Amino acid sequence: MSIQGYDNIRAVEWSDNGLKLLDQRLLPRLEQWITFSDALGVAQAIRDMVVRRAPAIGITAAYGVVLAAQQRYEESSEHWKNLIEEDFKLLADSRPTAVNLFWALDRMKTLLGGVDGNPVASLLAEAKLIHEEDVAANLHMGRLGAELIGDSCAVLTHCNAGALATGGVGTALGVIRTAYAAGKVNHVFADETRPWLQGARLTAWELVEDNIPVTLIAEGAAAALMRQGKVKWVIVGSDRIAANGDVANKIGTYSLAVNARYHGVKFMVVAPTSTVDMAIACGDQIPIEERPQDEVLSLAGTRIAPDAARAWNPSFDVTSADLVDAIVTEKGVVEAPTAAKMAEMMKG
Amino acid sequence: MSIQGYDNIRAVEWSDNGLKLLDQRLLPRLEQWITFSDALGVAQAIRDMVVRRAPAIGITAAYGVVLAAQQRYEESSEHWKNLIEEDFKLLADSRPTAVNLFWALDRMKTLLGGVDGNPVASLLAEAKLIHEEDVAANLHMGRLGAELIGDSCAVLTHCNAGALATGGVGTALGVIRTAYAAGKVNHVFADETRPWLQGARLTAWELVEDNIPVTLIAEGAAAALMRQGKVKWVIVGSDRIAANGDVANKIGTYSLAVNARYHGVKFMVVAPTSTVDMAIACGDQIPIEERPQDEVLSLAGTRIAPDAARAWNPSFDVTSADLVDAIVTEKGVVEAPTAAKMAEMMKG
User: Fold this and answer.
1) B95 torsion bin: left (phi>0), alpha (psi -120 to 50), beta (else)
2) What residue numbers bound the domain in which B201 lies?
3) ipTM confidence
4) Average model confidence (pLDDT) for chain A?
5) CA-closest candidate to residue B296, choices A23, A225, A173
6) B211: nearest CA in chain A?
7) Residue A224 is nearest to which of B28, B251, B308, comparing CB atoms?
8) Is the pLDDT of residue A279 over 70?
């Protein structure tokens, strides 16, 4: 199962030498892979955004546990289960908002509890399974999301929720790829997504690679785009979804959701159920990472603001469920999400 | 009349050597002035955004006419009124959206029609009067706008509508300076304002120079800021206001207005009546300049998007009058603007 011609990009790969990550800080100028052999390096790579977005972080952290187990079991075949606690902590502390990180670590830890002898083979099998499940979830969500789109139209996406953000074809971009292949999407507008420019650097790159027509806009132009009737859907990913359907996603998403509702544009969130945190009742409880001020004050290494200026740099925002038309997961679609509908979907 | 301590910045100055403009492309890294001696150079400076924003462009164009008159009268004291037509055209073609440009050129042309002999002295007097009127209008609007603000609060501004955008203390920043001096504004959040980064480079610089506390945000963070109740007013300038109160301003303004209304945040537009175009019934008729794609595709001279990517780069957007709580001009305040209220204000 795949979308012919639209599944060539990968950003996370396991190899005999360790975990290979495509360095997303350098795209689209340079396609450079870095190989990691311990949890410390993997945690640092997540923090520094060599790899980014909830599903990709989850997969990466799972492989990080494999690397940690290799090292700790070599260190002491007797005490490795104690020693590896530190690696779990390192990985868990790398970024706070994406719940897939904790979900993947929990899953690896549960498996680890029952392991006797050398744990590497079974942990690696579990990490690969998490990875493969994400690939399959992407494809399934792609079909479910594409079904929601009516006549051929242009859509707007924010940040990057594509192959670079997941194990497979992407969440939002998985839907967009599937819908484009089916003739339901004819053009993609991409928010450049300040401050990290994921839209300009990553989403535009993915779509250009796949020959899907893409036009970049500054985020300030999104409302004008909607006012002119140029897009029918906003399609985004998520880093954590609360039990009531409130959605945390890259800063700027909430503004799009408010504008989409005002202009009668539909708003779709695409994320695997590993992104849904049923332990959190509503979005206001989702921890929102604040990243260094310098990401806003500087650009491409050059200070743009005056030296004395300060910045506020929340990395995510929360969109209330009442602004969301559909949440698409691999377990199904929840339209106009509520706590009851979300609970029902999670059971399915 | 001035706001003690908050009126030190100037960007447009007449000197014996010609028209001096502070090069706003280089701020805040470098404070460099360029001296212009002909209309061609002035028109190019407006197009290339050495100088920018409606009121400053109007003043600059008026001085540009003085330079043209000097040159043309020297060329031919007989035919200069014919020859200068070309300079008027050059200046008028420099940028399409800011109506103050055409307003200032019309005013200079009207005066010129009745001139006998060497026109330079009377044209220079008129240009200086336009400049002085703008300085006075800024101060008056500052007081009128500040009166609208209740208890001490934080406000959000977009782009740069300050001293760098006008002849005096600014339109939006004139209100903010006055309100800060009066203890009614305690903090300013500034949108960085992609793609040209006027907020990061110019507004932050002006406020830092005046010791007014300023925090820079990526535009995507504005909605989260409002959701958290951190700002009570959005205060912006304008490049053209239609007869019904629709407001053209820097791209991104409309998104803020939609979000402000959604969050119960007040929305104030500050502009002199030279920005009001009573010949245009509503905002949809305002010509919106589209600037080069490269402003979005590149950053500080470095390409950020992949080579094959394209961009849409409208420089302005239109905010409907029904999203505006108050338009502040030097002739008075129009709350909840309508065509009838705008016409009444323009008479006053």
Assistant:
1) beta
2) 142-347
3) 0.95
4) 96
5) A225
6) A308
7) B251
8) yes
